[in-house]
Amino acid sequence: MFERLQKKWKVGGTQLFLILCVFAITGTATAFLTKQITTWLHLDFSSAWYWILKIVVLVFGYQVLILLVSIPFGQFTFFWKYEKKILRRFGLMKREGTIGNRQWAMGNKHIAIFASGTGSNAQKIIDYFKNHTSIKVELIVSNNSNAGVLKIAAKENIPYLIIDKEKFFRGNGYADELKEKKIDLIVLAGFLWKIPDVLIQAYPRRIINIHPALLPRYGGKGYYGQYVHESVIDSQDNESGITIHYVDEHYDHGDIILQVKCPVLKTDTPETLAVRIHELEYSYYSQIIEKLLKYNS
């Protein structure tokens, strides 16, 4: 159950514990407050006012209390998002979304795609958002001046940036250049360099990666592309898949956003398994990017 909640809320184990503490304390405090008010007003179960007051406290008082309780636990941001969903459900807050061709209230969002190779995933993402009303691929970033993804950028008329190793790892990680382009989300699509701490700090939980295996298995330095598929087949695993996750200071380690599985057949080679994995990547990555930009602004 706890693992499902972590995936649903996209939080780590410590944060999940704090969130559950907030729920528990708020529930107890709401029940205590309701009892005190009804006792003070001399209301009993037979009174209609008793039930009216109880509903008011549970519906409205609970929502206020949970925000107040969340502050000392450092979880106000999480619960404010939780509250906004409730307010939208009751029509008390404008939805952030798109209906027809109307633009989202959150405004335009810009993506930077980091890639080191041919850019097949980058092309699918570009195609997905090509006619989008609110999300745009604003920049292609590569550490390889001969990467095929740069040809895609030129063909699609998207600005690109070739980064220098020294500046990337010992400078500002190109954070200033990304901020200048008003980048909201950094999307890694076959980018082989580790993301430096300075860039992670500049874009907290706004850098995501897709890995061609079910993390934490077959993750870490050196596990990319065909090397991953070869390891899966050598281990005689029955299944593989993709993992979309937030990027932190370690290789293939951040909080998991989505995992999708596929079977590994006895007749599979690394090449045939790669085809199946690519299909999953193309199907899910762009959708997750859209959802993150839509709901986490």
Spell out the blueprint of helices and strands:
Layout: H1 2-9, H2 13-40, H3 48-70, H4 76-89, E1 109-114, H5 120-129, E2 135-142, H6 148-155, E3 160-162, H7 165-170, H8 175-180, E4 185-188, H9 197-202, E5 207-211, H10 226-234, E6 239-246, E7 256-263, H11 270-295
Parallel strand pairs: 1-2, 1-4, 2-3, 4-5
Antiparallel strand pairs: 5-6, 6-7
Helix pairs in contact: 2-3, 3-4, 5-11, 10-11
Which structural traits does this protein have?
7 strands; 297 residues; 11 helices; alpha/beta; 7-stranded mixed β-sheet
Helix content: 40-55%
Tell me the radius of gyration: 24 Å
Q: What kind of oligomer do you see?
A: single chain
Q: N-to-C SSE series? A: HHHHEHEHEHHEHEHEEH
Number of strands: 7
Overall form: elongated
Mean pLDDT value:
84
Biggest sheet, in brief? 7 strands, mixed
Distance between the termini: 27 Å
Count of DSSP-assigned helices: 11
Structural features, described:
The structure is a single chain. By secondary structure, the protein is α/β, with parallel strands linked by helices. It has eleven helices and seven strands. It has helices spanning 2-9, 13-40, 48-70, 76-89, 120-129, 148-155, 165-170, 175-180, 197-202, 226-234, 270-295; strands spanning 109-114, 135-142, 160-162, 185-188, 207-211, 239-246, 256-263. Strands 3-2-1-4-5-6-7 form a seven-stranded mixed beta sheet, covered by helices on one side. Mean pLDDT is 84; it is low at 95-106.
